Amino acid sequence: MIAFHPNLFVRVEELTGPRAPQPSPLQNGFSPDRLYRVLGVYNASESSDAFFILPNDRDEMWFICQRHLRFGAIVETSAHHLPYLHAQASD
After folding, report:
1. Per-residue pLDDT of the chain (91 residues; tens, 9 = 90+)
2. Is residue 2 in some structural domain?
3. Reduced to 3 states, what is the DSSP secondary structure of residue 65?
4. Please, which domain of life does this record's source organism belong to (predicted)?
5. What is the number of structural domains in the chain?
6. Residue 34 located in a structural domain
7. What is the dihedral of CA 88, 52, 74, 11, to 10 degrees?
8. Beta pairing partners, 25
């Protein structure tokens, strides 16, 4: 079982290179300047990767590998996207 907090937001920090997992989120409607609400998590039994279900900036639903994601925030809001404030991340 995979559990996650219902108010969990993540940010995209896309991995590059020949072994980077697909799809590439920054080429498919995601931005490094936003946080995205986690709507679900899936882990295929044949893979050690978990895939997070996120709504992109076009409100499309995508399965994004956890290796592209970093913790963003826990925020009680009904929003599905939030601005990522880089200055706060370094505090």
Report:
1. 578 899 999 999 999 998 899 999 999 999 999 999 999 999 877 668 899 999 999 999 999 999 999 999 999 999 999 999 865 544 4
2. no
3. strand
4. Bacteria
5. 1
6. yes
7. 10
8. none
Judge whether 3 lies within some domain: no
* 72 in a structural domain: yes
- Full-model pTM: 0.87
Identify the domain containing residue 40 by its residue range: 8-89
Q: Is the peptide bond before 25 cis (omega within 30 degrees of 0)?
A: no
Q: What gap in Å lies between CA 39 and CA 4, rounded to an integer?
A: 9
Distance CA 16, CA 23 (A): 11
For β-strands 40-43 and 8-12, DSSP reports them as unpaired
Number of Cβ within a 10 Å radius of residue 48: 7
User: Distance (Å, rounded) from C-alpha 55 to C-alpha 42?
Assistant: 15
